[in-house]
Amino acid sequence: MAQRQRHLRGETNEVTVDVHGHTVIEKGDFVCVNNTAALFKTAQAPETSVDFYAYPVNYLGGVTNGYYDNTFLGIAMKGSVSGTTEKIPVATSGVFRMPLKTQAGVTVTRIVSGATSAAKAAYPQKVITKTLAELTSSYFCVVGLCVKTASGATACDFELITRYAGVTNADWNAL
């Protein structure tokens, strides 16, 4: 399902971010920004300091709730190929559809997550859903709230939630 336009409706409030030349981001990926020192120490992204470049969430090294919550930017509206440092638009709000990691029933107001801490795995283009009661230290990385009820669903429609939803390009460039 790579390179899919996942936006369904609503204002996307896009910000334009730099993507490092060694990074591949596909349209529809969950994107984080390296605003926390030594956060992205992985084979794919060996950065050891803050550089404010955008990375797909699966580049996060040793994912923890605080890191994901503080760095999650939104959903890539355009892809970026390796070998070229470029700017891409990232949506910070709107309603999106993502495939579920496993088929399940989804209900309005369920919390949509982009990763699980149990496996320290971040899913660049898949989600899981949980109720508030089920949201424990085993599940985190909230990316939105479900806006549609369906049984045996293979995808989830959700309202994107990110701390950068009110940020404009001018605000972003001032960081």
Describe what you observe in this structure:
The protein folds into two domains: 7-92, no CATH class; 95-160. It has two helices and twelve strands. It is 7% helix and 39% strand. The mean pLDDT is 76. It has helices at residues 65-71, 169-174; strands at residues 7-9, 15-19, 30-33, 54-56, 72-76, 86-91, 95-106, 111-116, 121-122, 128-130, 139-146, 150-160. With 175 residues, it is mostly beta strands. A hairpin with a 3-residue loop joins β11 and β12 (150-160).
Q: TL;DR?
A:
By secondary structure, the chain is mainly beta. It contains two helices and twelve strands, in the order E-E-E-E-H-E-E-E-E-E-E-E-E-H. The chain has helices spanning 65-71, 169-174, and strands at residues 7-9, 15-19, 30-33, 54-56, 72-76, 86-91, 95-106, 111-116, 121-122, 128-130, 139-146, 150-160.
Biggest pleated sheet: 7 strands, antiparallel
Number of strands: 12
N-C termini distance: 33 Å
Mind telling me the C-alpha Rg? 15 Å
**Helical segment tally?**
2
Tell me what portion of residues adopts beta-strand conformation. 35-45%
Report the structural category.
mainly beta
The amount of helix comes to under 10%
Question: Which outline best applies?
Answer: globular
Task: Record the SSE blueprint.
Elements (H helix, E strand, L loop, with lengths): L6 E3 L5 E5 L10 E4 L20 E3 L8 H7 E5 L9 E6 L3 E12 L4 E6 L4 E2 L5 E3 L8 E8 L3 E11 L8 H6 L1
Antiparallel strand pairs: 1-7, 2-6, 3-4, 3-5, 5-6, 7-12, 8-9, 8-10, 8-11, 11-12
